[in-house]
Protein: Monosaccharide ABC transporter ATP-binding protein, CUT2 family
Amino acid sequence: MLESAVGDVPRIVPQGLAPVVEAVGVTKRFGSTAALRDVSLRVTAGESHALVGRNGAGKSTLVSILTGLRRPDEGVVKFGGEAAPSIADRDAWRERVACVYQHSTIIRDLSVAENLFINRQPRRRGVIDWPAMRRDARALLDHWRIDVREDARAGDLTVEARQLVEIARALSYGARFIILDEPTAQLDGEEIKRLFRRIDELQRDGVTFLFISHHLQEVYEICQAVTVLRDARHIVSAPVSELPRERLIEAMTGERGGLNVADAAAREPLPADAPLALDVRGLAGHDYHDVSFALKRGEVVGLTGATSSGRTSVGEAIAGLDTPRAGEVRVDGRALRLGDVKAALANGIGCVPKDRHHEGLVLSQSVAENASMTIVRLLGRFGIAPPAKKNAFGRRMIDALGIVAQGPEHVVSGLSGGNQQKVVMARALASDPDVLVLIDPTAGVDVKSKEALLSVVDRVRDEGKAVLVVSSELDDLRTCDRVLVMFRGRVVAEFPAGWQDHELIASVEGVDLHEA
Structure:
């Protein structure tokens, strides 16, 4: 028997059951590149099975094969002991497996009912039977105990609720094997707990999950088994209870030891007379109020809190991505025109935004074009930079940040998530900013990419620049000389370097550990 826990609820998964899905000896090549080499995976009925590995390890390719989007060059996939359907039989695949992706496939402008039955609406006399569709949607949501209105606009739902609607849609086809791709990436602590409780309830109702996450602690919280891929190969599959965190990271990276991130507690303190680089006074917006703090040159400050705390909006306001309702931001004593990205850049603010796909990158352009986007005017006359200059700059950034790419002309859409994020970092550093604002800089990246991205913080700090790290990731915050905690739109606490995990987390959740 395998035993793990979700919250305080013990979970037993019987062994010896037939696998819901099994991949045996799967190999997939793209030209001369092997995306998977002889990979095997076995997921038992009723379990949550984690699939982990660095970006580029082969996870996405394996998922595309398990969902019938690609055919393996070698090897087989079986569902319940039977060979997978042909690639062309999409209905048969939907009956067996579904994937809830990190980037939602829900259509926001449609209702919940319309999303649940899109392209298969009940019809009467050749037209959509709207009352029947709403009844069917309500019955489906009630059956799986998903508490959303069938007539609600999908775009008005929380991220958590949209994920549950996607799961319900998959279950409505008959699938009982669901792949969850980074399901907690946009959720805060309470939302994650609720999602995990629903996953556990669905497991008890006979649903099996393949859980993909870069948050390794979640693997231990929700999963009973784990499979590690590295360099397109299967490294290990084991019960999570038999694979401690250090061994799991070693399997992912091929190196011993945990995450190698500089801890600010070991640094020499800044001189008392270090000049101010950033001064934020009375900043207020739609989800934050009267936020004030300052950063000195050579200082790294963290800004953390739950997803709904307002921390992201504050970071975006400083970088010009959002327009606050009130307040003032000064850079090196100069008042900044708010809500203006160009003004922020001109005044020495560089930014890694939260959403790299929509705000950080042009996916159809090359590494060089993306990295040099903020400095084109410096590379050529009239805002037109010669390709040779762009490529030379891109090559320097590839070397400086360890971007794994075929060269500066490599199109960004073809890079792994970790390398895409390094390109975003390159763009932020290109203008040689005095203040670097990093919003969730390591979200969705693997262990080694996380180390590389966070090493930039130390390098920039040593150059006398100021860094604001806006994140809920504890590893991101360990690089900070102090951490400010936001709760319900306000800064409520400050922790110097050397803080204890439980104390910081309690503050983020609004809990006072010292209250009598």
The mean pLDDT is 85. The first strand starts at residue 2 and ends at 6.
